[in-house]
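$ ./design --mode recover --in tokens.txt
reading tokens...
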């Protein structure tokens, strides 16, 4: 009896220790230091961003490599981080997710989302099963800044929240034969480009009655006492205009081959599609990696999850593909509160020559642009009525809310109070307004949540990339050395192995299902449209390799059948450009 009690005590202690061990392991997910300590309550300039990716590469050399896909106008590397597990198969035989950001120089926080995504995947590999599975079965191609020149300019120079969107290829914006000769000027030397206003007898604006820092346009029949003169600047080239020819001022997101239009129709489009070196580098990379099955581009701002078309003149997308988009977008709205799934031309504005328009319309890849950060996130309150026009029609209301947030939460740091200045052309004026860090980027303390939620949406998209599988293989003996081999192949995710856009315009080769063996001769083979009726549609040529001309839709199966002669081992291979390659063995005896 004493021995039995002792045994029970030992068992109880062992179980207790096991529980403690499990609890510690679970707690360790949150209380243990990370291998790479990166902060996501700050923004990284271009050199710091490159260094952060290099640090991740050194810390996780088996899972990540950093290379360059090309050079910017000024010679900066367009860095690429590739993340996957080579021990589970080569990258060319896995579905890939392409993630990019910072196409527009001033739209900076997408690079932090990219950095966070890489960091999160690597730090949680082997800890979180779903993350481990993604790294084992997918490839992640991450380009954190497509426009490194624009990023460097925005960080290093006085700017507004919206300047400069472009890269730094010199352009003659005002057709005077000079290049980039009349940019903004930091007149008061405070490191910010703010607005200028001047008191006049009959003005179009007045000081707001709700807050003297805000300006409001007077109604018809009323008289104001101010005019707004635009952002800080002087007439550097003596043509009577201010700030009309700054660096670049083209639009890198209008330079793509999908519905490209010249500058007189689509301002900023460039001389011809892919005329910009940064766009050419990205396009070349995408064309060289046909396994890319998903695209995510990060911009700012507005709280939108966008898909094409970019223009009403572009045909609407095939219904089958729209259903896939709608499902992904619906989940995105759940993951990203205050974001709205939307169509570019219908819910935002017309875009000709946009990047994700090309990746879907020209390459057949399901692609999203996330417009990072929404003004509704300041106080986490949704408007009583929200539609596609709110972002245009409620600017003043949002300006008031932004100012309240600045005062109560940011200690007044983001607004420069109006102060007098003697302008060489306008005389006595006042300078004041928002700093460049206001409006389009989140407050630093809110950056990490923005990064994680957008990372989570991208990882959901990556998880739903095509996942080919061979569910069943049977071999029925029909006679001496004669067999009927049947394979049930499947796609275990929402996104089809071939979009209907790719099928309609022949944008990729069909998927293949093949049988091979050292002593086999394939007599016939084909698709079985109805597995229960069992009637095969024989291929006219090469029966050993059956073409799935429309791929495998999401969450569906296809049945292939062969009549083969011979015995011994055989191998079934399902080869999907956008999903990867899987095999399964069968013995014929």
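writing sequence...
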């Amino acid at each position: 009896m004493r021995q039995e009690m002792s045994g029970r005590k030992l068992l109880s202690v062992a179980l207790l220790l096991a529980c403690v061990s499990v609890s510690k392991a679970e707690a360790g997910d949150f209380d243990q230091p990370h291998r790479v300590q990166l902060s996501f309550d700050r923004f990284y300039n271009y050199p710091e961003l490159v260094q952060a990716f290099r640090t991740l590469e050194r810390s996780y050399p088996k899972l990540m490599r950093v290379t360059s896909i090309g050079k910017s106008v000024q010679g900066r590397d367009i860095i690429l981080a590739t993340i996957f597990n080579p021990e589970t198969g080569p990258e060319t035989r896995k579905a890939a997710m392409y993630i990019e950001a910072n196409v527009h120089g001033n739209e900076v926080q997408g690079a932090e989302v990219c950095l966070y995504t890489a960091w999160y995947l690597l730090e949680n590999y082997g800890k979180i099963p779903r993350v481990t599975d993604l790294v084992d079965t997918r490839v992640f191609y991450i380009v954190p800044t497509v426009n490194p020149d624009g990023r460097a300019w925005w960080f290093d120079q006085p700017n507004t929240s919206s300047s400069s969107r472009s890269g730094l290829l010199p352009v003659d914006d005002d057709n005077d034969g000079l290049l980039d000769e009349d940019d903004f000027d930091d007149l008061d030397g405070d490191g910010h480009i703010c607005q200028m206003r001047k008191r006049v007898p009959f003005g179009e604006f007045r000081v707001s009655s709700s807050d003297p820092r805000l300006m409001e346009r007077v109604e018809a029949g009323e008289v104001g006492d101010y005019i707004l003169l635009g952002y800080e600047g002087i007439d550097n080239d003596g043509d009577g205009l201010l700030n009309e020819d700054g660096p670049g001022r083209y639009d890198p997101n209008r330079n793509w081959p999908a519905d490209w239009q010249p500058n007189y129709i689509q301002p900023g489009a460039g001389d011809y599609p892919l005329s910009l070196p940064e766009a050419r580098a990205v396009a070349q990379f995408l064309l060289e990696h046909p396994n890319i099955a998903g695209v995510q581009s990060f911009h700012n701002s507005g709280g939108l999850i966008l898909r094409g078309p970019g223009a009403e003149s572009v045909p609407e997308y095939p219904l089958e593909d729209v259903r896939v988009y709608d499902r992904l977008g619906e989940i995105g709205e759940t993951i990203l509160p205050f974001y709205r799934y939307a169509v570019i031309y219908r819910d935002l504005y017309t875009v000709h020559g946009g990047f994700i328009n090309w990746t879907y319309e020209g390459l057949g890849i399901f692609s999203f642009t996330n417009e990072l950060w929404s003004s509704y996130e300041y106080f986490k309150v949704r408007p009583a009525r929200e539609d596609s026009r709110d972002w245009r029609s409620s600017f003043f209301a949002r300006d008031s809310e932004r100012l309240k947030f600045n005062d109560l939460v940011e200690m007044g740091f983001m607004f420069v109070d109006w102060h007098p200045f003697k302008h060489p052309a306008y005389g006595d004026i006042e300078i004041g307004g928002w700093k460049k860090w206001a409006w389009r980027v989140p407050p630093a303390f809110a950056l990490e949540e923005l990064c994680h939620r957008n990372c989570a949406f991208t990882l959901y998209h990556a998880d739903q990339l095509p996942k080919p599988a061979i569910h069943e293989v049977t071999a029925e003996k029909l006679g001496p050395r004669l067999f009927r081999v049947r394979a049930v192949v499947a796609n275990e995710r929402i996104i089809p192995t071939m979009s209907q856009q790719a099928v309609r315009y022949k944008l990729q080769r069909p998927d293949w299902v093949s049988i091979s063996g050292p002593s086999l001769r394939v007599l016939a083979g084909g698709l079985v449209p109805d597995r229960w009726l069992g009637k095969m549609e024989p291929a006219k040529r090469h029966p050993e390799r059956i073409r799935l001309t429309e791929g495998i839709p999401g969450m569906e199966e296809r049945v292939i059948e062969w009549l083969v002669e011979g015995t011994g081992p055989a191998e079934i291979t399902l080869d999907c450009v956008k999903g990867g390659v899987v095999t399964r063995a069968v013995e014929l005896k």
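exit 0
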